[in-house]
């Protein structure tokens, strides 16, 4: 598994914001990347139960409107909205918490597709202050990287291969740079710079297991 870390980090666009829902204000992180693949192919990669494990995680359930899904060892939820091949929305249920994801795909010509995913969650101020957007953002960075590799090469990456790569020097550099990029997005959203950097340092430590934390 060979990744151009610098290229992949710079290819992704990250945004941090807020949204008012019926239950109150929620945090929103948005991650996007443009792939050199046609719209229908990207949609199939994101919704076909046989392809999803090649770049993300094994998935079970009914991948249809109203159906339940479960990612192995990760989140599950209900598909609440679906507009093939442009968008879908689903709940994201993990560790007793419920949040939401929304995926949008936009054709850029015949052979390029803009991928954009929003993760919307009610996060209390204390937990946000501890880790910031990178807590989930770094994981989504890994996901869009896996999709980039799959779409560009057709390759499949097993969970074991992914774990070995994450523990490598290259993998730790990727996690570190992704965390720093989410820190920059947080600061751009108006977050206090010192607080954002401290939260990012804790996120980096958690993902790379360095044990180093910001002061």
Automatic annotation (TrEMBL):
Q: Where is the Activator of Hsp90 ATPase homologue 1/2-like C-terminal domain?
A: 36-148
Tell me which domain of life the UniProt entry assigns to the organism this sequence originates from. Bacteria
* InterPro entries assigned to the protein according to its UniProt record, in alphabetical order: ASHA1/2-like_C, START-like_dom_sf
Name the protein family: Belongs to the AHA1 family.
Please report the name of this protein according to its UniProt entry.
SRPBCC family protein
Q: What is the lineage of its organism?
A: Bacteria, Bacillati, Actinomycetota, Actinomycetes, Kitasatosporales
